[in-house]
């Protein structure tokens, strides 16, 4: 029994990590109907930038100058600044010229963007694996281990708290603010939004900046767990089944989807794995997503396709 | 009483005040090749309803989109002529700036934000305003007083409301921007005659009480000419006829081609004056 609980908890916490990545996708998809393939690379780029600022790396030279090393809070703020700048650049240089194009063209754009960002990250900060040390707690929680015999990683608990805060902030932003309302309006109908005077350029810059900041949070959490390296950009692929399960345009969906995938993976690996020779964890999420596509294509919380009859 | 009427008349037709909207001989090309408007000129005096009539594909919607500057997002372009709204050259402004200056379009087919509630839809109309939430709230009440049905449905998702309610919602949404002029594209489309009547009556009330000018693109010629003061008839991207609404209503050709009445009685399509039409209007 204890083992089962431990499996579920570790699944839930791993799920939160997936959700953090999925959130960034949801933001951009909600506001522009674009599936942002570059979201994973954005997390990598944000992580690299943060690690660079922390260690005092001089951009382009790959040399460390300890005098430039920033304290964690300043490094995080600076990285947020970089992500906002990046969003404005993407809007100015790319999105503005693709207004009213087919979704597939915008998707291709994000594919290209992923490569550009990956290259830019290497060029600026170097391609070696970096350790991200923000002083986040890590290791097993002694309290739980002593009292209940449960092994729970503290870092993952922190990630869960951060995700909860992030979701609350985003929900308030979308439901209660003028800009949030405009974002949802743009998601519904670009042209009509344009006709009531909502500036698409501003909205897109805002939404990409928000996605950049969410990517930074994901980058911090994953980076603290397993170092900042190229494979970070591949977590985007893990977010895909999460999105299909939760719905591409639902913030709560990204969270619940992530949790289901996380738990499903771990439980399947432990209890079904032995019967089929193991390694279920790698493909279980995709199978689950496939099954969902057949039954409920809009996802658990996705916006119902409104059809008036 | 008599005098009051004549003063308004004078303000409307006699005074030399510049029109709120002047379109001068514009040409519009889509995708750099398709010539849609071939020289359209029209003007809308302040505080008037002007109708833009014509069949499918005549260029009504394109004209409106050229004025509200929404063409660019459809790869359309004004290649000749000029559009002046309230003494400002429209081509130099973004749609966002135009709405801020008081020119807003209600697009064809209603185009409410389906996943927002009716009230949220209305509030998006106030996006460009900077005069604080108290003012916006007051205008929301005002819109509800024009459209009581919207108040009842305020919490419903716009996508689940009826066609008439959606049309009211999109007109109300435009009103929330405090416009000087509304470009209203085919408000009667797909609605029951009774609902069309209701909507036109509200539009005309709005015009009289708040002085909003309207440029109204319509296929429902009869209805439009009843409510408008002046009308332009478009055909194949050209203005083929214009005049005061009453004069247009009595014009034999308009009766024949747009109202389906000729020589005092309705006739079948077969008896129409096809050759005459071509000769007179397109030669």
Describe this structure in words.
The complex is a heterodimer of chains A (309) and B (283). Chain A has 309 residues and is mainly alpha-helical. Chain A has a single domain, classed as ABC transporter involved in vitamin B12 uptake, BtuC. Chain A has twelve helices and two strands. In chain A, strands 1-2 form a two-stranded antiparallel sheet. The longest helix of chain A has 31 residues, at 2-32. By secondary structure, chain B is an alpha/beta fold. Chain B has two domains: 19-250, Rossmann fold (3-Layer(aba) Sandwich); 251-283, no CATH class. Chain B has twelve helices and twelve strands. In chain B, the strands form three sheets. In chain B, strands 6-7-8-3-9-10 form a six-stranded mixed beta sheet, sandwiched between helices. Chain B has a four-stranded antiparallel beta sheet with strand order 2-1-4-5, with helices on one face. The A-B interface holds A 99-100, 178, 181-182, 184-185, 187-199, 303, 306, 308 and B 68, 70, 73-75, 94-96, 98-100, 104-107, 111-116, 120-121, 123-125, 127-128, 157, 159-160, 170, 173-174, 177.
Binned strand content of chain A: under 5%
CATH class descriptor of chain A: Mainly Alpha
Number of strands of chain A: 2
The helix/strand class of chain B is alpha/beta
Query: Within the largest sheet of chain A, what's the order of strands?
Result: 1-2
Runs of chain A in which pLDDT lies below 50 for 5 or more consecutive residues are: none
Order of the strands making up the biggest sheet of chain B: 6-7-8-3-9-10
CATH homologous superfamily annotation of the largest domain in chain B: P-loop containing nucleotide triphosphate hydrolases
Number of helices of chain B: 12
Output the radius of gyration of chain A.
20 Å
Rounded average pLDDT of chain B: 86
């Amino acid at each position: 029994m204890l083992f089962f609980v431990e499996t579920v908890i570790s699944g839930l916490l791993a799920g939160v990590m997936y959700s953090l990545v999925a959130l960034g996708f949801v933001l951009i998809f909600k506001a522009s109907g674009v599936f942002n393939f570059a979201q994973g690379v954005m997390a990598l780029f944000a992580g690299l930038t943060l690690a660079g600022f922390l260690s005092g790396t001089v951009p382009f030279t790959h040399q460390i100058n300890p005098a430039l090393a920033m304290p964690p809070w300043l490094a995080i703020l600076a990285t947020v600044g970089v992500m906002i700048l990046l969003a404005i650049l993407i809007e100015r240089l790319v999105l503005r010229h693709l207004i009213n194009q087919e979704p597939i063209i915008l998707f291709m754009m994000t594919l290209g963007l992923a490569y550009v960002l990956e290259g830019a990250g290497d060029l600026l900060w170097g391609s070696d694996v970096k350790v991200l040390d923000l002083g986040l707690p890590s290791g097993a929680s002694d309290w739980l281990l002593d009292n209940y015999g449960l092994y729970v990683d503290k870092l993952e608990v922190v990630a869960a708290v951060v995700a909860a805060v992030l979701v609350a902030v985003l929900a308030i932003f979308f439901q209660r603010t003028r800009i949030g309302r405009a974002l949802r309006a743009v998601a519904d109908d670009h042209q009509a939004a344009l006709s009531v005077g909502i500036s698409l350029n501003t909205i897109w810059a805002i939404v990409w900046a928000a996605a950049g900041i969410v990517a930074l949070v994901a980058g911090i959490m994953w980076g603290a767990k397993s170092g900042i390296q190229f494979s970070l950009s591949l977590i985007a692929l893990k977010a895909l089944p999460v999105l299909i399960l939760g719905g591409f345009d639902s913030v709560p969906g990204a969270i619940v989807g992530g949790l289901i995938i996380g738990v499903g993976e771990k439980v399947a690996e432990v209890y079904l794995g032995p019967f089929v020779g193991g390694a279920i964890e790698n493909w279980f999420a995709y199978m689950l997503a496939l099954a969902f596509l057949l039954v409920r294509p809009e996802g658990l919380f996705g916006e119902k396709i409104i059809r008036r009859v | 009483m008599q005098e009051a009427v004549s003063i308004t008349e004078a303000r409307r037709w006699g005074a030399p005040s510049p029109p709120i909207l002047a379109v001068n001989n514009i040409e519009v090309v889509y995708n750099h090749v398709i010539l849609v408007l071939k020289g359209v000129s029209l003007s809308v005096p302040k505080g008037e309803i002007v109708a833009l009539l014509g069949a499918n594909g005549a260029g009504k919607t394109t004209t409106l989109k050229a004025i509200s500057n929404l063409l660019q997002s459809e790869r359309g372009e004004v290649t000749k002529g000029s559009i002046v709204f309230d003494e400002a050259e429209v081509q130099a402004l973004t749609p966002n700036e135009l709405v801020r200056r008081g020119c807003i379009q209600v697009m064809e087919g209603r185009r409410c934000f389906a996943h927002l509630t009716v009230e949220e839809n209305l509030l998006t109309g106030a996006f460009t305003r900077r005069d604080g939430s108290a003012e916006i709230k007051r205008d929301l009440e005002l819109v509800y007083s024009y459209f009581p049905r919207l108040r009842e449905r305020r919490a419903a998702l716009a996508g689940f409301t009826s066609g008439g309610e959606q049309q009211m919602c999109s007109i109300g949404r435009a009103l929330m921007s405090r416009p000087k002029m509304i470009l209203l594209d085919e408000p009667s489309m797909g609605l029951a005659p009774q609902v069309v009547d209701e909507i036109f009556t509200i539009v005309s009330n709005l015009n009289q009480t708040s002085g909003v000018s309207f440029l109204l693109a319509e296929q429902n010629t009869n209805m439009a000419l009843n409510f408008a003061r002046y009308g332009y008839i478009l055909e194949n991207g050209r203005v083929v006829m214009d005049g005061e609404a009453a004069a247009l209503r009595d014009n034999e050709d308009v009766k024949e081609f747009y109202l389906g009445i000729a020589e005092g009685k309705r006739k079948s399509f077969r008896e129409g004056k096809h050759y005459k039409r071509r000769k007179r209007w397109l030669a």
